[in-house]
Amino acid sequence: MRAREKTEQIKLVIVKATDELLYHKSYNLMSFSDIAEASDIPRGNLNYHFKTKDDILLAVVAYRVQQMNKMLSDWDASINSPLERLLRFAQIPLNEKNNVVQHGCPIGTLNQELGKVQPELKAISKQQFDVFKQWLIKQFSDFVPGQDAQKLAVHMLVRSQGLSAVAFIEEDKKIIETEVKAIEQWLKSL
Amino acid sequence: MRAREKTEQIKLVIVKATDELLYHKSYNLMSFSDIAEASDIPRGNLNYHFKTKDDILLAVVAYRVQQMNKMLSDWDASINSPLERLLRFAQIPLNEKNNVVQHGCPIGTLNQELGKVQPELKAISKQQFDVFKQWLIKQFSDFVPGQDAQKLAVHMLVRSQGLSAVAFIEEDKKIIETEVKAIEQWLKSL
DNA sequence: GTCTATATGAAGATAGAC
DNA sequence: GTCTATCTTCATATAGAC
After folding, report:
1. Is it true that domain A54-189 has CATH number 1.10.357.10?
2. Which of A30, A32, A167, B128 lies 20 to 30 Å (CA to CA) from residue A60?
């Protein structure tokens, strides 16, 4: 029991370090050595905890999904109206301004990278995207019951992904500010 | 002279094949062998024409920029109003529906991939993006002289990049149709 | 100019000593 | 359970035969 617990802790250290690493490095350019260095676990020992690199990615995505679900249920509990929750969502890139400009949206960039050649990995990574999508659909259903919540949720994701992508390419924080403001106006006009 | 010309032709064959390859394969996962196979040039000979892989990328981007400029000046010549030119631009993802859903926007995905770790290459790839941006600014200046053309151009790019990214992740052509329609409405309302 | 053969290095993964 | 040493594979890039 104790031993098992300790193993789980080490795994979590690896996962957290890799999660962090994945923000500024692409998955395919990220080596076992990079992970070993970042997590301060001896290079060879990684292979005991995770057989393959893909296994680590799997664990990282599971961890991220868990974190995202926690954040969203916190919002559900602490923010009263669906409109304000949606506004809060729209502001994510604003709060992560520096990261977005330097590394893009962590979910979007990972999905795009894996989507190009590794369909199995893409499906895994897509889970992160779907957590947001389902939550958005719920919020829009509550916010404007008569309208097509699915379509509105997708539109929200489109604008959020788009502004992150363009701000990253142009390395321009102003784009985030302007575009988030535009999303807020759109939400309030619904 | 003759010899030089022939060399240039071979280079173009390599560049075109790599351009094509880059639509479905990420740059970092693309090997010289892949390029050799795609262009039907013996593996070792590639290194005579291009010293490094980055040199090939450089040539591919230059080629793409040239093609894009050609397309845009064709539009300038054949399409009368700036609004119709902008509508034509908005429809690019619609005409490339299958490619977008399978591989994403070729410009956006390349920029995002290179942006994460290779700043020198990112700057090169960004040229493609800027060709579109400058052209859009010109069109918006002509279309709605009083308004902030730069801001409108960026917004157009945001929506275009966003819809490509989300349609790619979700592998859903309907998203392209719906979102392009929304862009058209927005343009007509300006 | 063309292409083969090869140098060199780094990656993922494994076997097995401790 | 932990970690070292190593196997294998595959990449870029070069030297030099044709």
Report:
1. yes
2. A167
Residue with tokens 């020198």: B120
* Cβ neighbours of A111 in B, within 8 Å: 165, 168-169
B30 touches strand D (CB under 7 A): yes
- Among B143, B37, B49, B14, smallest CA distance to B90 is for B143
Q: What is the distance in angstroms measured between the alpha-carbon CA of B47 and the sugar C1' of C11?
A: 22
In angstroms, the CA of A43 and the C1' of D17 are apart by 42
Q: What is the pLDDT of residue B24?
A: 87
**Contacts (Cβ under 8 Å, ≥6 apart) of B45:** B36
CA quadruple A164, A126, B117, B53: dihedral, nearest 10:
-120
* Euclidean distance between CA atoms B33 and B54, whole angstroms: 15
Nearest nucleotide, CA B33 to C1': D11
CATH topology of domain B54-188: Tetracycline Repressor; domain 2 (1.10.357)
Report the first-to-last Cα separation within chain B, whole angstroms. 54
**Among all residues of chain A, which has the CA nearest to that of B182?**
A155
Question: What distance in Å separates the CA atoms of residue A161 and residue A153, rounded to the nearest whole number?
Answer: 12
**The amino acid at A115:** G
B109/A contact by beta carbon, under 8 A: yes
Name all contacts of A59-63 with Cβ < 8 Å and 24+ positions apart: A59/A11, A59/A14, A59/A15, A59/A18, A60/A15, A60/A18, A60/A19, A60/A22, A61/A124, A61/A125, A61/A127, A61/A128, A63/A12, A63/A15, A63/A16, A63/A19
Write out pLDDT tens, residues B14-39. 999 999 999 888 999 999 999 999 99
**Residue A6 clears pLDDT 80, i.e. is over it:** no
Residue (of B4, B72, B114) closest to A104 by Cα position? B114
Residue B167: Cβ within 10 Å count = 25
d(CA A114, CA A126): 10
pLDDT of A100 over the 60 cut: yes
Residue-wise pLDDT for A135-182, tens only, equals 999 999 999 999 999 999 999 999 999 999 999 999 999 999 999 999
Find the Å distance, CA of residue B48 to C1' of nucleotide D17: 15
